[in-house]
User: Fold these one by one.
Assistant:
Number 1:
Amino acid sequence: MMVHLVRATTRTTLLLLLVVALVTTSVESSKQHVNNKNKGNLRRKTEDACLYCTMYILDVQMEDHSVHPDTVYRCELEDDGVMYTIEPPQSYLEANPDPVDDIIGARVCVEQGVADASTNLITSGNGVVRTVERRRHRQLAKNSGDSTILVVRVKDGRGTGPVVSMNQLEGAHFGNSQYPVSVVSQYRDCSNGKLRYRPASDIGAQGGVIEVQVDFSFEGANVYSSEAAVLRQVNARLAPYGKSMQSWDHVSFCVPGGSKTNTDGGGGWLAYAYPFGRTSWFNNKWCDSLSAVVHEFGHNLGLLHSGGDASASGVELEYGDQSSMMGFSYLEKSKPQMCFNAEKSQQLGWYNDKILTVNKFPWTGHLNPMVDYGMSNAHQVILKVGASTMIHFNAATKANRGTREYANTIIVSKNLGTVKGRSYTSNVLAALNPGGFIIVENTYIIEACNDAVVRSESSSRPSYAKMSIRWSHEASSCDQEVDPNEPGGVQTPYTPPSPITYTNACLDMVDFNFNGVRYNDCDDLARSYRNFISECAHPNSIPSWYCPARCNQCGSRSGGADPLAQTATAPIVQKEDSVRRRTTTTTTTNRRRGANQESRRHALGEGKVRLETSLREEEEN
């Protein structure tokens, strides 16, 4: 009897435990469902306490050409390519000061990280973000060879799409009768056939273009937060074909109007992209702008902006070079036809075999435009001087016929590196007409000789400009004969100058720049320079060189090295005669003012580029 009772009690206890376990499991499941619903699809990586993602920094272009105030950090999850906004802690930013080399493309661990789809934010539980692997200058988009483009037209919850149709998107990207110049043809021509784009295929697309719909309105929405929903729809659209967004090199999104960025500043956004990434986004009417799409694809290829006058600031500094597609964009179809500047072209690697590094002065030779790179009789199309100065001939012909600035001039640009936390790759130092020159860093002169020719597009010979590069104290070498078949030009080792001997040099120099302060004459120098008399007594002193009368140095004397050449802060070109020492100063740039960019900067030089016609070509041949 006792045995049966114990057995019955045991069975009852086990049954009760099983019921309790089932109820507990059901309650916990219900709680988890409620939590997920309320918190919005939280995704957490618990493996080694890290949420892994790849860092990017948005680059936003504004309709009013203002500089976008936001620095937006985004992190791409590894499984589906969806971007989330992340606010890196100050410790991470201090440890990674260069946005291009240190942050963009870096794989990071967000400790105790959570990705919240409802807010499109990644947060860290303990505030620690650390780099696991750096990008090492790789990019997802390829800058040569065969590359692919997927174009996505997005409709909102009401079925309203952007003003640019599927057919127009196809034409703008891949070309048709409405769009004789397309993104594909412009990259093909600027790269001399080295970068060949083709549309996405085998996914039921219309000429590389697909359409997806989201369940919300873009009117007033934050476009960054809207990205995630669009990307999920794209991946769902591609899944039946065994594809995902990562299957293509570029993915170009066209969204309806009305959305905003975090801070729209003085105007709405027109486009944005992820440098070294694969995606670019276009706002409504800008979706078929040739320059906007080429510009944003350039970011995917790793290019940053082409800036204007290096002494400027803000928008002039960042977007001011309108000879390059990496300056401002234009709301125009199939134009303007222009390529990239020398610094960007070197980065893309399209002309590497025709880049000449000038490392011995003086150098004299011909410079061909980059659009003539493919001609067998073309030589150097980019000159590189030092570590960061680039020179190219901006001939307004062929794929560059629509250049909006500095047409048919020699453009001298410089890599500025990182400025104020943002990375600028190039700024214009000067645009030289024939006969013009610029003195760089008070050290050497870049001169455009008077011989420059832009040939007709049907010509069998390349356009050219004769160039001279020399030390600042040397005379022009433009008169030196150059064999057109000699690709390296004439380059000779540097020979120090002989001491200058003055004869009857009793006239003071009229004008010079000393220690950054402009003096009109030697009397002003005498009043301003306390140790003037004692300086006159010092051999090779500045007063004794440039104010011989005031320093009682009349008569013949040996000059030795020019002291001003070592101390001046502004360029001076020096010439000698038997009576006095004279200087000529040149201003290489005038600041452009106003958004319309009407004012143009040109260096000293009255010469005009010869524009050869077909008739002239026939006469020469």
Number 2:
Amino acid sequence: MHRQFSYRPSLDDLVEASDEEDYDVFSERSEDDLANEAPTLISEVLAALRSRFWRRAASLGAYRSG
């Protein structure tokens, strides 16, 4: 399951905003929206890490068994 978040600042946006004291990356999103997405985002990150770990373990196992 891959989710697209509705707002992600570009690097240019962040660089331009770095001089502004009150810049909030998530200003267009409510705190409730962010709180509701946090568990999903954490689950997606953990799934990606598990997948990467098992792919790496499998490639090392194939390499060692020769």
Number 3:
Amino acid sequence: MPHPELAPVRAVRPETGDRSGVPTWVCPACERENAIAADRCEICGTPFAQLFAEPERRVEIDPSRALRWSLLLPGLGHWMVGHRLDGVARMVLFAWTFGTVVLLALTRSGGSLGSAGALFALYAVSAITLYGVSAIDARRIATGEDPLVPSRTLLWASVVLVVASVLLATVLSLPALRGG
């Protein structure tokens, strides 16, 4: 029995230019074929790494449900809508700020915060703001709108909070370090 002859394999996309034998990658944005050595698309500038990026998962959820999830725990609404990383960041940031408020309140005897009052206020305002803005943002994302506070802004706000905390704690502890 003779074996059937196999048809020659053809490239899915025709080569552009003379790339004979050089491996290529196809840009996910403009579909331009680029040499494998190129770290960005020669036409639109899309990075090679974009080929491996997962598409942002968008889950259809009722906006009021996303708001309620976020009121239960800031970031949970983002998680339910499909913005997992942003949701986790908000959960961690809220746990940190709210946890600090609780610890400061519990460690002060007699109800007076004393010199830690400023630090308490900084973290209390941060926790309350994060709580409210996360709920609003979860609702906005569920409706397809842009959030009030995007991930990058949240990251920089966290950095500012850390720096302000360190500076404030340093200023508050200086009198004790000087012996007074």
